[in-house]
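User: Can you fold this complex?
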Amino acid sequence: MNKIPALSPTVLLAVALLIYPLIFSGAFYLDVGVTFLLAAISASAWNIVGGYAGQVSVGHAMFFGLGAYAPLLCYKLYGWTPMAGIPFGIAASVALAILIGIPTFRLTGHYFSMATIAVAELIRIYFGTWDLVGAAIGLQGPATARGWWDLTFRSELPYYYIFLTVLAVLLSFTYLMERHRFGYYLRAIKVGERAARSLGVPVQQTKIRALVLSAMFTSVAGSLYSVKTGFIDPESGFGILVSVQMVIIAALGGAGRLYGPLIGALILIPLQTATNTWFGGGGTGLTFIVYGGIIVLIARYEPGGIYDLWEQISPRRWRRKHAS
Amino acid sequence: MKGFRVLKAVAAAATAFTFYAAAQTNAAESVKIGIIWPLTGNAAAAGQASKAAAEVAADIVNNAHPELGDLPLAKTAGLPNMGGAKLELIFVDHQGNPSLAQQLATRLITQDKVHVLMGAYQSSCSFTATAVAERYGIPFMVGESAAGNITGRGFKWVFRGTPIASDYARTYMRFFADMKKQGKKIDSIAIVNENTDYGTSVADAIVEEAKKANVPVALRIPYSASSTDVSAQILQLKEKNPDVVIFISYTADSILYMKSMNNLQYKPPMVIGDDTGFSDPSFIPAVADAAQGAMNRSAWAIGKPGSTTYKINEMYKAKTGRDLDDTSARNMQSFFALADAINRAGSTDPEKIREALTKTDLKPEQLMMGYQGVKFDETGQNILAATYLIQLHDKSYELVWPDNAATAKLQWPMTGGKN
Amino acid sequence: MLLLQVIVGGLLLGAIYALFSSGLTLIWGMMNFINFAHGEFVMLGMYVSLLVVMYLGGGPAAFGFGAAFALFVLGVVVYLSLIRYVLRGPMLAQILSTFGLALLLRYTAFWIFSANFVSLPQTSLSGTINVGGILMPIPQLVAGVIAILLTIGLHLMLTCTTIGSQLLAVSEDRGAAMLMGIKPDRMQALAWGLSAGAAGIAGALMAIAYPWSPSVGETFGLTAFVVVALGGFGSVPGALFAGLIVGLIQALSAFWFGPIYKDIVVYALFVALLWLRPQGLMGKA
Amino acid sequence: MLLEAHAVSKSFGDFFAVRDANLSVGEGEIVGLIGPNGAGKSTFFNCLAGDAVPTSGKIIFDGQDMTKAPPEAHARLGIGRTFQVPATFEGMSVIDNVMVGAFLRHPHQGDARDHASRIIELTGLKAQMDLAAHSLGTPGRKRLEIARVLATNPRLMLLDESLAGLTPTELQEAIRLVRKIHEMGITIVIVEHIMEVIMTLAGRVLAFNQGHVIASGRPEDVVKDEAVIEAYLGRGSHRVRRRSA
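Assistant: Here's the predicted assembly.
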């Protein structure tokens, strides 16, 4: 009885996303759709540790970048399909997550954020000097596909549905996580670490698990990016803007909410595209003035993200869904 | 009704795009050129300058400018082979983001229905944007991206009018050989390069060519262009004492290097700047007291009053208040080559334009740049692109090498600054 | 000798880091607030200096003061119109607000001043002095010395004046400070003014020797974070010390390992230090 | 003995918050810790709960040395605690709060929910079950904290001023709740500075002053102890609540 009202918006959302390419079949709209999905995937992945567990990482580009480099590196070194690199990216990200998670989670609040920024910058600069990964020039994917397995498509359509599948998997995973002990523990840690420990929540271990899961999905997002773009360099993989974008999208929509990042991406990506379309060619920087201004306004007037606004509009529905 | 709202939001956003796109499409007889440059972000200065240059170039093509001599398409208004059709430029801003460059190339081709593309300054963005053009079969003119492998990936639709890193490197080696013949001492050189794609590509090429030419590279210093202090590097140079130091730098860092060298009283026999930062209009006023005799690579020279190049520079100056720099000028030259090909194609059909581009053969007197011509090889690279070396004399650059084009005498060693 | 020269260069740069980081550490320590727009304050300080020189023909004293004043006002305005509302909100909203502000400031400058690089016209501050074989460029020397003096001055102001102790009282215990009749809002506005003002002067000092464009703030912002975290949040002497250390480490690692490694070394030390001593070099335990 | 503390001291620099405190609690007892503000009872309490590591001394629970064990190990072994300032998980609903505790012994969501519902019923929070924790008032949140701890199936509960700041009616209800918990066979250590509460609940009392245990024994004896009277009157027993050490 509880499931049906909770699921129906999800169904509508799923249908909307599934039929989007049929309605907006132009390559540009598809590309915007793909960009939107990628942003939603990255921010949802960030959301696991940044939103649910409340550990605000501003260095998630480190996982995104590792995930992005792995496929193209496999292609460059061994001529494999870029797909083959995805597991390597995940493995590297998981290793990094554990490596930095153990010492870093002793830090709280801003210290954790600062440490993650520093590690991501460290990796970015290092990759810029490392010849094996193309140093500053970066890596390219196959110019033309040798077969479907190269995932180098002429059309955006396959990317759209691949990305949508990944997003669906990630959101289903998050949905289950929310309902699992792990999800409860994460939320408890977020609001009261000390109280959580007193109730027997293994805080350290739970945080590291969250970081590892988040890193895995962020790495996949990175892999999808580089396979689709066919190019990666230190800035687009590990740049601070990559990290900040994940934070902004999740925070805009509603951090620690299942659909928060999705809603954030739904607002931000069309906003970015529209401002760049309208003002970009003028070269006045108006794109960023509008973009920055809207971010400031939302932070000022809706600090909990757009999702919170929703709650206020339909409190009854929310209560039923979230409190049960 | 949450989901429904989401759906509505998507629809609203999408409708907004559709309206916009509809407004963009018009049925004029013009030839649409989509231009992808970084108009914001770290490389915005170069993108903005190039945008102004492209606008001047479009003005020259679209309106009658008989005063500009042999420059193709200047005399007539519009493209004569297409009944005077005008060029219509659509600028977009990729912000230095390769993925955005890809998206914008897609937009220009599928929404704005441009007939040709041009861009994209940063090599990273040229990589991704050209791949889109190749996929859709739209000619793409790379105006100014140094990385060697933008052409040579087996692409049919990509052309590059500008010289590439290895061309620059070979020019330097020819210059050194020339100097040695004149008895100048060049026993070792040092390379100081900013460490993004531009600096790395050029420095790599110089190291390679120097090996072939038997010029020892005493020191190579890659650095980040956002450095706020470079004294440590200058002291390293001082220690190794090379005969020539080549700087591959952006604007702030090149100024910082010249000033700090003067402050730390380090003066190598010769400094050569690899264009970019040394060609930025803010460079000369900032370092005129500190870097007299510094050389720079450039294929652009303003020339004597009355010359075609001088007039072009006047037009540019009227628009921006600044002199045309080499980077923008090379973009402009690529633009002219593209316009010439479109005119010869006599059609907006991409395949015909591509064919015309492959048959391009502009002579030196038809150019605004100091190239030996414009002619594309099978990879799309202009094989006649070349460059001059210029030298800072007082408050402007003078063309000093090669000898046959020189307007002033080379000073060796450089005089540097007051200290 | 060379090494000594490198050290001097590093310390002079570090002094400027110290000055603009001391502003950041002030509000960070006082309000537990990360300001991602701090680098933009430095950038605006540079442009204000340029305006003062170009339109008012002011010398270094005039543009230094002008930048400090203009940025002080901006800091207060930013606090009153934005920060006070997000201050007690979630940490994410705080990050969001100052990140948005950074974009807004950077691209407003971009719009007004264009993307082109500018530098101050040559001022009376030029030349180099030679102290026992060590060369010290006068602009950097003056900038460094002023920066150190101002940072010390800021510290003295916080510790030895009434206003300073009121500021510290608010940062220690907001409620108690209110009971003592201090208006926290006013004090926090003042702190933002001081913080931005310090960044403004730092910008003016940087402008003497360094060309810039609107995107210059990004680099400064990151450096300031490292300095503040190293020095301990809220500690002005810590920022001074850490600023000098960071300048020194950058110069030495640039000299020994090459300039591209200097940031790697700084970040690596920073991360290592966070693990070993999370409260910073001089922070409260 | 269920819980034993031997010569526990905790110092911050030169300052001893607790010095040589001894305590032994038998299965099924209710022991009160009293003392004026700043007497060290909260610090001692935090040592027992694993929130602070004693500078010296030993804490044994059910035969296991817990001196340096982290709080989560305490919870696992059956020591639950509440906080002086209620630390409920704001933004989570009441039932979700209790479920976090319930998960300790019931890893599956369904079991945890059932268990939590039982506890909520027991603690009288049923009507507020689906409300967000922050919408409860202080008494409700204190009750919620107790429910949350109860959900971890503790053998020993440490209550840190869980009854402070309540109105007389609320207080009576709370006392009933504590009794009910005690009847379930749970041993209780309770920190309180309101004498009356201790008098009615505790079977045994330890009085703290300036870090030392100054008296211990049956509540009616301890309140008559001169040192205790002096400590309370001399320091003033109803000062504003101080921050926990």
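Chain D touches chain A through 35 residues (CB under 8 Å). The longest strand of chain D covers residues 15-25.
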